[in-house]
Automatic annotation (TrEMBL):
<dbReference type="Pfam" id="PF00669">
    <property type="entry name" value="Flagellin_N"/>
</dbReference>
<dbReference type="InterPro" id="IPR001029">
    <property type="entry name" value="Flagellin_N"/>
</dbReference>
<dbReference type="InterPro" id="IPR001492">
    <property type="entry name" value="Flagellin"/>
</dbReference>
<keyword id="KW-0175">Coiled coil</keyword>
<comment type="similarity">
    <text>Belongs to the bacterial flagellin family.</text>
</comment>
<keyword id="KW-0975">Bacterial flagellum</keyword>
<dbReference type="GO" id="GO:0005576">
    <property type="term" value="C:extracellular region"/>
</dbReference>
<keyword id="KW-0964">Secreted</keyword>
<comment type="function">
    <text>Flagellin is the subunit protein which polymerizes to form the filaments of bacterial flagella.</text>
</comment>
<feature type="domain" description="Flagellin N-terminal">
    <location>
        <begin position="13"/>
        <end position="141"/>
    </location>
</feature>
<keyword id="KW-0969">Cilium</keyword>
<dbReference type="GO" id="GO:0009288">
    <property type="term" value="C:bacterial-type flagellum"/>
</dbReference>
<dbReference type="InterPro" id="IPR046358">
    <property type="entry name" value="Flagellin_C"/>
</dbReference>
<dbReference type="Pfam" id="PF00700">
    <property type="entry name" value="Flagellin_C"/>
</dbReference>
<protein>
    <recommendedName>
        <fullName>Flagellin</fullName>
    </recommendedName>
</protein>
<feature type="domain" description="Flagellin C-terminal">
    <location>
        <begin position="214"/>
        <end position="299"/>
    </location>
</feature>
<feature type="coiled-coil region">
    <location>
        <begin position="82"/>
        <end position="128"/>
    </location>
</feature>
Length: 299
C-alpha cells in the first residue's frame, strides 16, 4: 500500500491559490478568444437572455429593412419609367404641334407615323418599369397595376398595422374615349395607327383633330407628373423609415454588445496580472517545499 502524502498547511494554501489562478486564467482566455464576457447562460443568465432578445429583434428588423429597400427600388423603377414616359409624351406633343403647322397632308402623314411609333413606346415603358416582378405603372392588358405593401416593423398578425400601401396606376395609353381614373386616355379610334394618319391628313378637320391629340397629351402629362410626385413622396417616406430602422438595428446590437461583450483591454490586463500571480504562486510553492525539506534534513 502506498504511503499517504502529507501536505503542510503552507503547501496546501499555495496549491489552492494556484488552482484558483489557473481557473481564472482559463476563464480569461475564453473571454479573450470569444470577445464575450458572457458566453452562456451559466456566466450571467439575465444578461445572456436580454442580449439574445435584443439580437433577435435586430435580426427581424434587418428583414424589415430589406423589405423597405425593395419597396424603394420598386418605386424608383416606376418613377424612372414615368420620367421616360414624360419625355416621350413631350416628343409626341412636339410632333403633333409640327403636324398642326404643316400645310401638306404628306408631311402630316409622315409626322403621324413618328407619333404612332412614340405612342407604342409609352406602353412599352410602362411594362418595363418593374422591379422584382412588381410593376406600379404596368400597361399590360391582362392585368392591372400591382399594389406595393411595405411593413415598417417586425410585428405580425393584428399588430402589423404599421405599413405603407402604394397603389399602382395604369399608365397605358387607352383607345377608349374616357378611360379609368389614372389611365392615360386619348380620343377613341383616333389612337389607332391607321386613323391617326387619316385624321391628320384630313385637309378640312386636321387642325381640330390634332388639337384633340395635343389636349389629351397635356392631360396625360399632368397624370404622369402627379403620379411621379406621389411616388416620389412615398419613396422619401421609405428612405426616412429605412434610415430609422437602420439606426434602431445598430442601437439594439450595441445594447446587446454592452451586455455580453468583453473589454479586451481590461481582459488583457487581467491575463497579464493572473500570469504574474501564477508565476509568483509557483515560486512561493517551491520555496515552501524547500523550507520543509530543509527542516526534515535536521532529523
Amino acid at each position: 500500500m502506498a504511503n499517504d502524502i502529507t501536505l503542510s498547511s503552507a503547501t496546501r494554501t499555495n496549491l489552492l491559490s494556484l488552482q484558483r489562478t489557473t481557473s481564472l486564467i482559463g476563464s480569461t482566455q475564453e473571454r479573450l478568444s470569444s470577445g464575450l464576457k458572457v458566453n452562456s447562460a451559466l456566466d450571467d443568465a439575465l444578461s445572456f437572455f436580454k442580449a439574445r432578445n435584443l439580437n433577435n429583434r435586430a435580426s427581424d428588423l434587418s428583414t424589415v429593412k430589406d423589405g423597405i429597400s425593395e419597396g424603394i427600388s420598386v418605386i424608383t423603377a416606376a418613377v424612372q419609367g414615368l420620367e421616360s414616359m414624360e419625355a416621350t409624351l413631350k416628343q409626341m406633343k412636339a410632333i403633333a404641334s409640327s403636324a398642326r403647322a404643316a400645310s401638306d397632308s404628306t408631311s402630316r402623314q409622315k409626322l403621324a407615323s413618328q407619333f404612332n411609333e412614340l405612342r407604342s413606346q409609352v406602353d412599352a415603358l410602362a411594362e418595363d418599369a418593374s422591379f422584382n416582378g412588381i410593376n406600379l405603372i404596368t400597361g399590360e392588358t391582362t392585368r392591372g397595376p400591382d399594389t406595393l405593401t411595405v411593413k415598417f416593423n417586425e410585428k405580425t398578425g393584428s399588430s402589423a398595422s404599421n405599413t405603407l400601401v402604394v397603389n399602382g396606376q395604369n399608365m397605358s395609353i387607352g383607345v377608349n374615349s374616357s378611360g379609368s381614373a389614372g389611365q392615360l386616355s386619348f380620343i377613341g379610334s383616333a389612337m389607332t395607327s391607321g386613323t391617326t394618319s387619316a385624321s391628320w391628313a384630313d385637309s378640312t378637320n386636321y387642325v381640330a383633330n390634332i388639337d384633340g391629340f395635343i389636349d389629351n397629351i397635356d392631360s396625360a402629362l399632368t397624370i404622369v407628373r402627379d403620379t411621379a410626385q406621389q411616388f416620389g413622396t412615398n419613396a422619401s417616406m421609405l428612405e426616412i423609415r429605412r434610415e430609422f430602422t437602420d439606426n434602431l438595428i445598430n442601437t439594439l446590437k450595441s445594447g446587446a454588445g454592452d451586455l455580453v461583450n468583453a473589454d479586451m483591454n481590461e481582459e488583457s490586463a487581467n491575463m497579464l496580472s493572473l500570469q504574474t500571480r501564477q508565476q509568483l504562486g509557483t515560486i512561493s510553492l517551491s520555496i515552501a517545499q524547500q523550507s520543509e525539506q530543509s527542516v526534515l534534513r535536521l532529523f
